[in-house]
Amino acid sequence: MKTLKGTVAGLALSLGLATAAQAELSGTLKIFSDMSNPAPRAVMEGMAAEFDAMHPNLTVELTVIDREAYKTQIRNFLSANPPDVANWYAANRMRPYVSAGLFEDISDLWAEPEIADALASTKGAMTLDGKQWGVPYTYYQWGVYYREDIYNELGLEEPEDWEIFKANCQKILDSGRKCFTIGTKFLWTAGGWFDYLNMRTNGYDFHMALTNGEVAWTDDRVKQTFANWRELIDMGAFIDNHQSYSWQEALPFMVKGEAAAYLMGNFAVAPLREAGLGTDQLDFYQFPTINPDVELAEDAPTDTFHIPSGAQNKEAAREFLRFVVSADNQTKINGGAALGQLPVNSKSSVDDDEMLNQGFEMLSANSPGGIAQFFDRDAPAEMASVAMEGFQEFMVFPDNLDDILNRLEKTRERVY
Amino acid sequence: MNLAPETRSSASASGSRDSWLRRNRQTLAPWLFLAPGVIFFLFYVIFPIVQSFNLSFYRWDGLGDPQFVGMENYRELMDDRAFEVSLWNNLKWLLLYLLAIPAGLFIALFLNQTVTGIRLYKSLFFFPFVISQVVVGLVFSWFYDPTFGLLNQVLGWVGLGPLNVLGDPTLVTYGIIAAGLWPQTAYCMILYLTGLNAVDPEQVEAARLDGAKGAKMLWYVIIPQLRPATFVAFVVTIIGALRSFDLISIMTNGGPFGSSRVLSFYMFEKALSEYGFRMGYGAAIAVVLFLIMLCFIAYFLWSMYQDDKGGR
Question: Is the ipTM here above 0.90?
Answer without folding.
Answer: no
